[in-house]
Design a protein that fits this description.
The complex is a heterodimer. By secondary structure, chain A is mainly α. Helices cover 80% and strands 0% of the residues of chain A. Chain A contains 4 helices and no strands. Chain A starts with a helix and ends with a helix. By secondary structure, chain B is α+β, with helices and mostly antiparallel strands. Helices cover 41% and strands 22% of the residues of chain B. A 5-stranded antiparallel sheet of chain B has the order 3-2-1-4-5. In chain B, strand 2 and strand 3 form a beta hairpin. The longest helix of chain B has 54 residues. Classes of the chains: A mainly alpha, B alpha+beta. At the A-B interface, helix 1 and helix 4 of A face helix 3 of B. Chain B: Keywords: Membrane, Transmembrane, Transmembrane helix. Chain B: This is DUF1523 family protein. Chain B: InterPro entries: Phage_phiNM3_A0EWY4.
Chain lengths: 93, 211
C-alpha cells in the first residue's frame, strides 16, 4: 500500500507541475495574440507601450473562465485515466 | 566542437533507443513448453533487470528470490525464457500484479511439438544470458498458427504519445525563449551598453578627455 501511495503522490506532483507549465504556456500564447490584435487595430500605437499593456491586462481578466483554460484540467484527468486503463488491461484482460 | 556535439547527439540517440527497446512492450509468437519457479540469486549487477524489492516478491537472507519462469520455443526452433514477476507501482509502469494468474494461464497453454498451441507473449526487457536477465511477461494470447504476428499496438500508441509530448515541450520551450529569455537578454544588453557608455565617459573624465 505504501508503494501505491507513493505512486499517487508522485503522479499528482507531476500533474501539478505540468498544469502550471501549460497554464503559463497558454497564457503566453494568448498574450502574444492580443499584442498582435492591438498592433493591427492601432498601427499608430504599435509596439511596447503603456496603453497596449493596459489593453492586454484588461483582456486577460476573464481568461481562467474560457474553455481553453478549463480544458487544462484534463492534465489531471487523462494521465490518471491512462494509468487506470493500464492497470485494467494488464491485470483483468 | 562540432564533433563533440555529434558524439553526444549520437550517444543520446543510442541511450534513448536502448531505453525504449527495454521498456516498451514487445510481442513474440511462441509455444509454451514449461512453467516453473526457482530460487534465483539477485546480485547488484542484475538487480536493475528485476522488479523492485517492494513489488511483492520476497527475497531471503542470501539475496535469492523465488521467481516464476515460462519456458517457450519460437517457430524457428530457438528457445526463449521469460520471467513472470509483478512490477509493482513505480517502474516500469506496467502496474502488473497478476503474476499468479498469468502463470496459471501459461501452464494451461503448455503444448507439445506434435500438437502445438501457438501463443503471443507480450513482454518487456532483455534476455542477457551473462547477467541472468529475462524479459518479464505481461500477458499471453492464443493464436491460430505460428505465422500469426499480432500488431504491437501498445508500443505504437506509447511512441505516438511520447512524440506528441516531445513536440509540445519543444513548442513550450520556444515560446518561453521568444517571450521571456530573448527580451531579458535584449534588456540586459541595452543596460550593459548604457553602463559601458557611462563607465567610458567616467574614465574619459578621469583622464580629462571627453569634454
Amino acid at each position: 500500500m505504501a508503494a501505491l501511495a507513493r505512486l499517487i503522490v508522485l503522479v499528482f506532483l507531476i500533474e501539478v507541475m505540468f498544469y502550471l507549465l501549460l497554464r503559463i504556456y497558454i497564457r503566453s500564447l494568448r498574450r502574444e495574440r492580443l499584442e498582435e490584435i492591438w498592433d493591427v487595430r492601432h498601427p499608430d500605437m504599435a509596439g511596447h507601450n503603456r496603453t497596449r499593456d493596459e489593453f492586454i491586462r484588461r483582456s486577460m481578466v476573464g481568461f481562467d473562465k474560457t474553455l481553453k483554460s478549463r480544458l487544462l484540467w484534463l492534465v489531471f484527468i487523462i494521465p490518471t485515466l491512462a494509468i487506470m486503463g493500464i492497470v485494467y488491461w494488464v491485470n483483468w484482460q | 566542437m562540432h564533433y563533440v556535439k555529434v558524439f553526444f547527439g549520437v550517444l543520446l540517440g543510442v541511450v534513448v533507443f536502448l531505453f525504449l527497446d527495454y521498456a516498451l512492450p514487445s510481442k513474440n509468437t511462441v509455444r509454451i513448453t514449461n512453467t516453473s519457479n526457482r530460487l534465483t540469486p539477485i546480485t547488484s549487477a542484475n538487480a536493475i533487470f528485476y522488479a523492485t524489492d517492494d513489488a511483492g516478491t520476497v527475497e531471503n537472507a542470501q539475496g535469492q528470490r523465488d521467481v516464476r519462469f515460462i519456458d517457450t520455443v519460437r517457430p524457428n526452433g530457438k528457445v526463449f525464457v521469460y520471467r513472470n514477476e509483478d512490477t509493482g507501482w513505480i517502474w516500469p509502469p506496467y502496474f502488473k500484479y497478476d503474476s499468479s494468474n498469468l502463470q496459471a494461464e501459461a501452464s494451461n497453454l503448455q503444448s507439445s511439438k506434435q500438437d502445438p498451441q501457438w501463443v503471443s507473449v507480450t513482454a518487456y526487457g532483455w534476455r542477457l544470458a551473462w547477467l541472468s536477465s529475462y524479459p518479464n511477461a505481461i500477458s499471453v494470447d492464443t493464436l491460430a498458427g505460428p505465422d500469426e504476428r499480432p500488431r504491437n499496438w501498445p508500443a505504437m500508441i506509447i511512441l505516438t504519445v511520447l512524440f506528441v509530448f516531445l513536440l509540445l515541450i519543444w513548442r513550450m520551450w520556444n515560446q518561453f525563449r521568444e517571450r521571456t529569455i530573448d527580451p531579458a537578454i535584449k534588456s540586459a544588453d541595452t543596460q550593459w551598453d548604457e553602463a559601458a557608455g557611462r563607465s567610458r565617459s567616467f574614465f574619459d573624465r578621469l583622464k580629462g578627455k571627453g569634454k
